[in-house]
Amino acid sequence: MNLIYFGKIVNTHGLKGEIRIISDFKYKEDVLKRNNKIYIKNMEYIINSYRHHKIYDMVTLNNINTIDAALNLKGEEVYINRLDYKFEGYLNEELIGLEVYDKSNYKGKVVDILKSNLYDILVIDGIKRHMVPNIDKFIDKVDLENKKINIKYIRGLDNED
Question: DSSP 3-state assignment of 56?
Answer without folding.
Answer: strand
